[in-house]
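chain below, 208 aa
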Amino acid sequence: MDGSIKELIKTLDDPARGWVARRDAAEALGKMALEAVTALSSHRKDKDMDVLVAVESCLETLQALIQQREKPRKYYSLRELAMACAKKGVREVEEYETGYSLIVTLSNGRSQRLYIMRYKSKDGRDMVRLITLCGKSNKDYEHWALKLNRKFSDGAFALQKWNGTEYLALVNNIMRKEATPELVKRCVKAMAEYGDWIEEKMEGTDEL
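prediction:
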């Protein structure tokens, strides 16, 4: 059965089209989905940073969607969210003040530290905040980082005061009711990759 994804979905959703057409639409969509996931999976070690982040983001979103349909939604504690990211030798979790820090070891041998903290917005909403510092505030890079925000779906670059010093940081505020282990882990992986990439360009170091 030929047709665009939108046309196939429209057919699948319309009982008036009959079971044969709807069955064929479901099979065609399943085939497309399998081909798409296979293609994405084959690029999990892509050398292009933007491609790698996009691929990981898509695959983690698909995994989270499947798991959300299998399990009822619940509120997760900050500890549960942090520990769900732990992987020996890859993501080490430590307590940090009222939250947690994660040291992520990247495939290039470098590492990046992220923080998972509680945060309450000005309008009183409970949030989970993910932060990774990229380098000391630098006017030459701030405009460039703002342009990068258009490409990044798992956070945004911002100026962040940290221990009395202003840094360019990658920040992601997630509504507490929407913060799942799968979503937080996906964001941590993507933010670590991008944060380290920016640090290397800004500072030429591997300290943050």
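The mean pLDDT is 88. The helical segments are 5-13, 19-41, 49-70, 78-83, 139-148, 181-202.
thats it, cya
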